[in-house]
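User: My advisor, Dr. K., asked me to get a structural model of this assembly before our group meeting. I'm new to this, so sorry if the format is off. These are the inputs:
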Amino acid sequence: GAVVSQHPSWVICKSGTSVKIECRSLDFQATTMFWYRQFPKQSLMLMATSNEGSKATYEQGVEKDKFLINHASLTLSTLTVTSAHPEDSSFYICSARGRGGSELNTEAFFGQGTRLTVV
Amino acid sequence: GQNIDQPTEMTATEGAIVQINCTYQTSGFNGLFWYQQHAGEAPTFLSYNVLDGLEEKGRFSSFLSRSKGYSYLLLKELQMKDSASYLCAVVDSNYQLIWGAGTKLIIKP
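Assistant: The format is fine. Below is the predicted structure of the whole assembly, which you can bring to the meeting.
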C-alpha cells in the first residue's frame, strides 16, 4: 500500500505555544488529506478535510483559527495547533487519499499519528 | 443521520475464531473498510468491500451485505497479537469516511 509519513510522533509543549504537525504522502499524490483527533478509548473524530490548493473544510465544532491546516502541495499537509492548551492534548492522525488506481481513490492511508501533550 | 454500530468489546480465546459485526445506516454507500488499531498507534488497513460477498485474506475475512447494511470481520486462528480495536468505516455518497466507535478485542490464552 501507499505510505504516509507523519511527523513528529510525539511532542510536549507548554501551554500557549503553537505546534506544527506534518503529513507527507511519500509515493503517491494526495489529492485529499484528512486530519483526525482521537481521545483515549474513543473513535477517530474527523477535524477537517483539505484538498490540495484550496482551503480546508472544518467539521462542526472545530475552530479553524485554532487548528490551521495548509495543503500547499500534493504531498504535504500541515496542521498547526495554535495557542495550545492542556485540553488540546490528544492523538492527532492524518490520512490521505490520492488519484490513480481504485485503491488510491478509495482507501485512506494513515500516518503514524502524533501524540500531543500540552503542559 | 448517519450511524455505524459495532460491539464495544469482545473476548475470545487464542486459536479460536471470532466474528465482529458492523451495521450501518448512511447517506449513500461507496464501500466499507475494516481497520485494526493497536493502542497508541494509527489504524492499519485490513480490508475493503464494495460488492456483496466474502473477501478472504489469510486469517482475516470480511463480508458485506449492502441490502442489509451489514458487514462482519472474521478472524481465524486467533493470536495474542490480534488483541486490538477493530474499526468499521463506511464511505458515504460524498466519499467521506463515517467511522464506527470500534470494537476492542481481547484475546485470552
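One thing worth pointing out at the meeting: Chain A has a mean pLDDT of 88.

User: Perfect, thanks a lot.
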